[in-house]
Amino acid sequence: MFLDNLFSILCFFLAVNFGYLSAEPKCGENMFFRPNGTYDTNRKLVLSTLASNVSSRDGFYNVSVGEGPGKIYILGLCIPGADPKVCSDCIEPGSVGLSQSCPNQTDSWDWRADKTLCFVRYSNSSFFNRNDSAPIQAEYFSRRFQGNLLAAYTRTWDAFMEFMLTRVGQPRYLADRSNLIVIDSAPKDSERIYVLMQCIPGISSEACECCIRESVGVYKKCCNGFMGGTVRKPVCFFRWDAYAYLGAFDAFDDTPSLPPQESQPTPLTPSLSPPPPPDEKTISTGAIVAIVVSAVIFVVLLALGLVIWKRKQSYKTLKPQTDDDMTSPQSLQYDFTTIEAATDNFSVNNKLGQGGFGAVYKGMLPNDTEIAMKRLSRNSGQGTQEFKNEVVIVAKLQHKNLVRLLGFCVEGDEQILVYEFVPNKSLDYFLFDPTKKSQLDWNRRYNIIGGITRGILYLHQDSRLTIIHRDIKASTILLDADMN
């Protein structure tokens, strides 16, 4: 959970009104990408699905897509406890805003405050372990403290912020929702102040404290004396105001609690009943309860330990049968003579088509299994070991909407891929034929579209290795016996 870098504070001070809070997205100024290039394509892909991914994953999602110069890192988050719909409605315009405001910058970010607090950032380099202190956005709200109120405010505000900052960097305050603290520091019970501090996941507690401390300093220099304000940085967010905002304080008791006070001597009072005689042995009810509870906990932990031990033993027994052990070049390689026999020596009668990387043939193995084989062009320039390594990786992709790679064959300069056979050829065989396209009624087309989408989603998001398919067309979409 990304609560590890959230520190939110609520205390009493002053009550004022405040309108909608917003700021423009920040665009990087040093590096740019080529429109419609690989980076731009990957950016459009991840931004288009970011809102749904963040809202469906408890308000936090980060991913990297692509390789080399086209690789993009992206993060989206909402304040903890935000309603998924509200979270999505905040992330979506944030994603669109970055696309429109930063059309070709490789590093951009935006903190949005619209019914909830959310954050969107993307870059061509990882930013999860960096403490980016710039650029900075600072805003203050229009009303100011006047006269004696300003002096009282300054003393209280400074002491309160220092009290909070000493706790931002302490891990025990970053573990769960208990880091929302209520503090009474005002002369009147009706006066309140609400402060929220948020760091992005991935940075250390020290870096979080440093970022927030700098933000408080920036606010004091630019906006001291105003009733409320905000400071935005690439890795942290700071806001204080005189009323609850963004749903951050909805789930908590409105009754203020006091900050830790200096210990005061406790007056001694006579005991209501005399202590037992020194030689009289007594067992209190509390001691009996403690003994019983301890015994129950011990039994539960013992049973849990036995269950875990048995599962580990079962895992050790099954371990030799994992995919990583079974999927090796040796287990996937076919003999060339078997391939020749299966295709009748690559007979023209068995040829299914010609693709950009070679011809495709239908074959029949000795066990009557129908297969499809792609005979790669001999001028591909790919080394044998590189070819084998890629085959092993692709063979681990398992999804009902992907044609399964069964194996390969290498013989001299011959490189052959062996796939499961799908009898209805490719989508273009039906789609562009005046007669056969009548078989594609709306329900069938809808099912085909759904299958394509699920297959692409698996490759882009759910597979072990992120793969971006850049050659999707009717001729590369194959149909099985049920036209799926």
Fill in the keyword field for this structure.
six-stranded mixed sheet; elongated; Killer Toxin P4, Chain A; five-stranded antiparallel sheet; Phosphorylase Kinase, domain 1
Description:
It is a single-pass membrane protein. GO terms for molecular function: ATP binding; protein serine/threonine kinase activity. Its main location: membrane. Residues 1-23 form the signal peptide. The protein is an alpha+beta fold. The protein folds into two domains: 2-241, Killer Toxin P4, Chain A; 329-476, Phosphorylase Kinase, domain 1 (2-Layer Sandwich), CATH 3.30.200. Helix content is 34%, strand content 19%. It contains eleven helices and 16 strands. The protein has helices at residues 38-55, 84-101, 148-168, 205-223, 285-318, 323-326, 329-332, 336-342, 384-395, 427-431, 442-462, and strands at residues 6-12, 26-27, 60-65, 72-78, 108-113, 117-123, 137-140, 180-184, 193-199, 229-232, 236-241, 351-355, 358-364, 370-376, 405-411, 414-420. A six-stranded mixed sheet has the order 7-10-11-9-1-8, with helices on one face. A five-stranded antiparallel sheet has the order 2-5-6-4-3, with helices on one face. It has a five-stranded antiparallel sheet with strand order 12-13-14-16-15, sandwiched between helices. Strand 10 and strand 11 form a beta hairpin. Helix 1 runs antiparallel to helix 2 and helix 3 (148-168) packs antiparallel against helix 4 (205-223). Mean pLDDT is 73; it is low at 1-22, 172-190, 252-284 and 314-326.
